[in-house]
Amino acid sequence: DDPRPRKRVRVLALRDVLKAARDAFPSLDLDASGIFLLKLDIEGLEPAVLRTIPHLGVPVKFVTFEYADNVWQERLGGIVKELFSAGYFCFIITAERLFPISGPFWDPAYEIPMWSNVVCGEEADVDLQSLVQLHSGAVGLWPFMPRTYLAGYAGDDQVPRPLHKAQELCTDLG
């Protein structure tokens, strides 16, 4: 029902994009350096591309994508579960914080917003924890902000923890 004129676009698989990058920049060693940030906003095709990440043969440090309930042909929960199984931990991005949605943090309520942005990183990567802290202003020149993490659960506990330890703590708290 969109009255705007339609335009044909060329669709490329992520593997083809990587091949084009290697051809254009022969000195670029993607196998060693990997992809630092893969940003996807491809109007509902995100699930298909996200499923290829574990099989690329090139490490992807962070991936961010748009979830749009009215455009995607499937639910967000399945993709988050697949990424978690592949070693990625995901967060919904808001202006104030990153809300964890992987593993024990998943709730079907995260599929209710019609539109949201998600960021995922390799769970074992210490830079993922830094990303979460940087987003909340808890690293760098700023002091560790009180009650930044696990609000309502951790009380005044301000002990920094790796993501998997915080995850265990939340699971233990029910």
Automatic annotation (TrEMBL):
<protein>
    <recommendedName>
        <fullName>Methyltransferase FkbM domain-containing protein</fullName>
    </recommendedName>
</protein>
